[in-house]
Amino acid sequence: MKTNEHLQFAVLTGCLRISKESIFTGLNNLQVFSLTDKRCTSSFGFTEQEVADMLAYYHLTEHAEVMKEWYDGYLFGDTPIYCPLDVINFCAVLRENLSAFPQNFWVNTSGNSMIRRLIDQSQKQTKEEIERLIAGETIVKPICQELTYHELDRSIDNLWSVLFTTGYLTQEKQIDETHFALKIPNKEIRELFISQIQVWFQETTRADVPRIATFCKAFPNGDANLIEEMLNDYLWNTISIRDTSV
Questions:
Q1: pTM over 0.85, yes/no
Q2: d(Cα 93, Cα 99) in Å, to the nearest integer?
Q3: pLDDT tier, 177 (very low <50, low <70, confident <90, very high otherwise)
Q4: What is the arrangement of strands in the sheet containing 170-174, beginning at the earlier edge strand?
Q5: Helix H segments across 62-155?
Q6: Confidence category of residue 55, pLDDT binned at 50, 70, 90
Q7: CA angle 138, 143, 144 (to 5 degrees)
Q8: Which of 103, 126, 142 is the last residue before a domain boundary?
Q9: Phi, psi of 25 (to 5 degrees)
Q10: Which of 50, 76, 103 is the last residue of a domain?
């Protein structure tokens, strides 16, 4: 780019920062526009007026409410934003079938490995935070917008930052310089969270079947020591939900 006299400017798009962006590389001095910047906020998605104009153009204004429920909810800087991919695809579907139900177009755009990695690495607190998000609540987390790909797995907190920058979560408001109140933006992403977590729970249940069978066999075999050991282990991992573990 620097040596091309015919190039006035260039735009690079992505979810994470350019790695090794320093004075010793051929690519530096970049102007970065993040999700929290107020500059160009309406340039990275569809505003509510743009969606209204599109629906009016295709005579689909009666679908405005469901469009908002499923595909709105993002906040770029201080501008509410719809996911453009979803809006375009749902409009295309509705033009063929006015009775069509909203679809999860997001799920086909990636392997959604970030959610699975979050769940696999999570502790009890993280699982509770996920449940709160699905219930429509917000959680306050530090967000690192300078995160690069090679830093993703250094901390579980980094995954919250990735979920934010990739659109799985959005900000409700900024608490301070680094902390944001995060939430699931819309029904489409909430359904994605639920389906992924259900799969995780199903896999966990299937993995626990041999352990349950061993526990049940211990009773007719009269193995009191095994029963005591496994029962204590079960209580240790579950009794806290009744607020009596202390």
A1: no
A2: 9
A3: confident
A4: 139-142, 179-183, 170-174
A5: 64-71, 84-96, 113-121, 124-134
A6: very high
A7: 170
A8: 103
A9: -115, 170
A10: 103
